[in-house]
Structure formats: structure tokens, C-alpha cells
Amino acid sequence: MRVVQAAEVAPTKYAWQVHARGLRVRAGRRMAVDGLDLRLGRGVHGLLGPNGAGKTSLIRCLASVLRPAGGELEILGQDVVGRSDLRAMRRGLGYLPQDFGYYKRFTVREFVEYMAWLKEMPGRDIPGAVQRAVERVGLADRADDRLKTLSGGMVRRAGIAQAIVNDPELLLLDEPTTGLDPGQRVRFRELLQDLGSDACVVVSTHLVEDVAAACADVTLVAAGALVFQGTPAELAAAGGSGHVGDSPIERGYSALLGGAW
Ligand SMILES: Nc1ncnc2c1ncn2[C@@H]1O[C@H](COP(=O)(O)OP(=O)(O)OP(=O)(O)O)[C@@H](O)[C@H]1O
User: Fold this and answer.
1) Residues in the chain where the model's pLDDT stays below 70
2) Which atom of ligand 1 is nearest to the CA of 49?
3) Residues in domain ABC transporter (predicted)?
């Protein structure tokens, strides 16, 4: 399957699925995101950065879990700053947190159904949407098994299924490949590219090779601010033989971060 290029990441009903200007997000007493400008449209966007860069805080804010502490933020064309009713906007979101909670006695199907219900999907649409989501993550044969009987990688795939069950326009995945084995990661990248053909998909990861293989563009953050936004090829071009890394893209990453990782 073909990677969607940045140039094709065309505006749809609104200019950008995510449009942040001077965004600030507080995590505890820290300003984890501090003056971030970001515009993301359709396609798969890799979010990279060293530990503590602010990736999780940014994703939690885009998912409307954390309120912006400053700046401007539009999600799916709606201004979320100072807005109290975010339910309509949330119906268009899919979110896989880094550590997601689930009730271990639920089967995969019950878990995804429950999340579809929380997302206020029409009841008649839920069974079909759940079956499709479970099939897309390769768990159809385990759909009626309890979550407590699944491996860590399968539980993560169930987490991805709940994130995509409502065909979100904005899909936020925080470290989705954690716990997936190499074969599952390759299949997951194919799924990402499929999802990115009609949604804005933001994937936070430490795995630079996932970005190179599946993302149309890369957003690199450090200390809560944007360091770089461009294609994986542009990121690779920023590095040279004197920079740390096993691949061109890793060398570009370390060149842009200096001594930050
Ligand atoms: N609840 C909290 N209380 C205090 N500080 C926090 C809290 N959550 C995050 N932080 C701090 O905010 C900064 C950004 O954290 P965040 O988890 O967003 O980074 P990250 O890029 O996702 O890191 P990692 O790659 O390690 O997951 C870090 O310095 C972190 O220690």
C-alpha cells in the first residue's frame, strides 16, 4: 500500500483537523507544552521527541483530556479553548492512551462495544462497527475471549480497535506499537496507512523506524516546543555521518536535537 504524501494532505470541511497556535499545556506544575504551533491535516503524522518532550501531554490535550493552559486550539474545526460542551467534537475522535484501563473480564467485543457506546454511536450501528474494528486489528478469532486471556500485544490491538470503532476523523495513538511483535508492527503500519487515507492520524512513538515506514510527515518536539515538521526524507536529510544513529532518519533526529537525547 502507498504512503500518503504530505502534499496530498488536503483540507476537507475545515482547513486542518488540528490547528494550534502558541498552545500551552500544563502537566502537574510543569508547562509540558509551551508555545506550540502545529497544523495537521489528513494523513499519518509521526510525533517524535525524547522522554519528557511533552508528547503525551500534547496528545492528551488534543484528545480533550487536558484543557489548554494558553494559546489557541481548534480540533475538527471547533475552537476548544474556553468551550464547555466538547461532546460533539469527541464523537469524531479516536484515542488510544499510553496506558489504557480496561475491565479484564470483558471480552474484546464487549470492550469495544462499551467504548462505542461511550462515544455515543447509534445503537444499531454498533455491532457492525465493532466487528469491522476487531477484524481490522486482526482479532476476529479472539473477539469473544476475555481480555485477561490475551497477550499484551493483543490487548493493545483491542485498544486500537476501540480507538477506530467510530471511524474517527482525528485518531490519536500514544505509543501504539508498545508490546507488538515485529510481524504485528508491520501489519499495524499497513493499517495506519489505510486509516490515514481518510483521517488525520497522530502517532506518538519512540520507534523511528515506524515513522519512516508509515508516516507522511514527522513532528519533532523537545521541551514542549516544535523543533521540526517535515517528511521523513527531510528529517533524514538533516543528519550526517557525524551524528548518532543507526539509520539516516535516526541521524537526522539526533542532529536536530543536538545533545537532547
Ligand atoms: N502529572 C504530572 N505531574 C508533573 N509533571 C508531569 C506530569 N505529567 C507529565 N509531567 C512532566 O511533563 C513533561 C512532559 O511529559 P510527557 O509525558 O508529556 O512527555 P513525553 O514526551 O510523552 O515523554 P515520554 O516519551 O517519556 O512518554 C515531563 O517533564 C514530565 O515529567
Assistant:
1) 1-12, 259-261
2) 21
3) 18-248
Residue to substitute in 55, 65, 99 for testing ligand 1 pocket (most ligand atoms within 8 angstroms of CB): 55
Query: Is residue 54 lining ligand 1, measured as CB closer than 6 Å?
Result: yes
Q: For the chain, where are the E strands, in sequence order?
A: 18-27, 30-40, 43-48, 70-75, 78-79, 93-96, 170-174, 200-204, 217-222, 225-230
Task: Provide the pLDDT for residue 214.
Answer: 87
Q: What's the pLDDT at 12?
A: 56
CB burial of 52-82 (b: ≥16 within 10 Å; e: otherwise) equals ebbbbbbbbbbbbebebbebebbbbeeebee
Report CA(55)–ligand 1 centroid distance (Å): 8
Domain ranges of the chain: 93-167
Instruction: Give the pLDDT confidence score for residue 1 in this predicted structure.
Output: 55
- Residue 133 CB coordination number (10 Å): 27
Task: Tally Cβ neighbours within 10 Å of residue 202.
Answer: 26
Cell of 173: 495513538
